[in-house]
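Researcher: Re-running this chain for the archive, since the previous output was lost when a drive failed. Same request as before.
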Amino acid sequence: MIYACEDHSDRALDDAVEKNGEPPVIEKIEADLSTTCSFCDNQAVYKIVEG
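Model: Regenerated structure tokens:
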């Protein structure tokens, strides 16, 4: 599972597709202040579930 902020959402999608060869499931995170982006320290707004 990859968490991404607005700035790194494209990178997270690219990484997930490269790893599994198929599109991942993307979920928007609602007001979870404790989850940070997998690529930086910003608050995550997307959860990418790799297939």
